């Protein structure tokens, strides 16, 4: 059985020097499928470009994928020595503590160029005749892990039916539907169409957290649509987050917050908390480093950062920071702060936990699903509460911080190998012939429950009178719910205390 990964987003974003979180996920899937022996001679790729569907063989995609990975990794390091020097001076570090971590950044002209690999990808030599392509991928498992193209329900249905594909979708979040005030006008309507496409066509849905699954299930109920078979598989933290980091010299207490500067990330509560701390403690107040690019509708936050004189020596904005430097700064910080109003997952939080760095974050179910009880949870609008906890964690003898460190020492965060051990089993289950339920992989155990399914009528179609949906596991639109068993699989998930 072939597996076809949709790489439309990777192609569309290949000219960008900085990847988003979803870009990283699609790249991780492509590299896993290309590098795993289990998928040798079984994996192919698809993309929709200029209203046409293009199919690619693994050999043609491998060079593009590796070039894109090197380009994004290389561009990530394009922080200047001047920017690093600003952080050193802000923290009163000796010159070179940060700038000497890695060799000086090569010039921009040396960034790996993806254009040659794109030309080879679309070369007639690598593209089989269009008439052969449908046969080559007929009946394959189709993976879409980026929401890309799901806004066109008719287009997706045509591709699924034309080639007999069995779709598996990864749903990242439903924030545009649950919190439309934090997205651009029109995004809520677009995301609703995407989620309807998922519900109408999925053989299996992967959710990054139980919170995302609950939100999708609630949307399905409101829309009177059946909930497809589903599994929760947390996204992975890169292995680099967890290696032994060199400790910096003792410095003035400081905290980090990581994330795009936009309303949903709630930087405003931190700035007001820091104003309180500076007024109370003066020069002894801890410092804050804001790591993240400027997003949209952030004028009030930027005004405070740039114009508030009281915060001038205590708050530093850093638009970009390579992983190597971010890890070192995280490791030395008194804590990493995440005051978000809404999150679908929150990968930087789990990167901090992988480094065993205390976390103070909003009390969101998405965080609790993966992080468990280790972090310090606060109401995102409780500015004084944030100020009190930050002041406490800044003290060298903080009992609360020491308690969290003990919990973090026993908490295991998800890695990509954990994620893909579940996904590989899901692909095998969906690939099974109709009516056949395959035994799951030993690395994951499904807990199956059967319920009567609603009749599903896809948009623009009429259902036959009396048509009912099958309750067989791995059949489309069943309400079978696949989840990791609490017993043997519990050690594979963060937030659970174990060896």
TrEMBL record:
The UniProt entry, under Pfam families, shows: Glycos_transf_1 (PF00534)
Extract the GO molecular function terms from the UniProt entry. glycosyltransferase activity
Q: What is this protein called?
A: Glycosyltransferase family 4 protein
Domain (Glycosyl transferase family): residue spans on this chain: 245-373
Q: Which InterPro entries match?
A: Glyco_trans_1
- Superkingdom to which the source organism belongs: Bacteria
